Amino acid sequence: MKPTPRRHRSDSAKAAVQAHQNAAQGPLEPPGYVTLPEPCKPFWRAIVTSRPRDTWTDSDLVLAANLARTQHAIESAPVGSDEHAKLTRLAMALARAVAVHPTATVGRAADMVNAATLERDVRSQDEDDLIPRLRAV
Questions:
Q1: Total count of domains within the chain
Q2: Residue 5 — left, alpha, or beta (φ > 0 → left; ψ -120 to 50 → alpha)?
């Protein structure tokens, strides 16, 4: 069995070069043998850009297309219906299968507590003229 190629450390120069090459190529397209209707394309783009481009395999892309179709179908299913619940469960299973669920893309919830607390604290602080802040235009 052929070993999986070793991934570079995420803070290495090689990883930075790979990230720039991935970004320059734009989002992946579905394999030619997969039919993906146009209304599913926004879901497709959100899915395939949530992981580094060079980590997708053909079988992952097939599952990603199924996930995109499922997410589109959820939009038309009545909220609270059995169909909506079944599609939601299917979408969650597909997201886990292609590693685009929150734990895979942003990390464990326990690790995000400090970042969320810090952001909440910053939002609640009074304006200080000495601290520059970004403002919505």
A1: 1
A2: beta
Would residue 106 count as lying in a domain? Answer: yes
Q: DSSP letters of the chain?
A: -PPPPPPPPTTSHHHHHHHHHHHHH-SPPPPTT----GGGHHHHHHHHTTS-GGG--HHHHHHHHHHHHHHHHHHHSPTTSHHHHHHHHHHHHHHHHTT-SHHHHH--HHHHHHHHHHHHHHHHSPP-TTS------
Residue 133 lies in a domain: no
pLDDT > 70? residue 69 = yes
Angle at 103 between CA 30 and CA 14, to 5 degrees: 65
Q: What is the pTM of this model?
A: 0.68
Using CA atoms, how far apart are residues 99 and 51, in angstroms rounded to an integer? 8
Domain annotation covers residue 15: no
The one-letter amino acid at 137: V
pLDDT surpassing 90 at residue 125: no
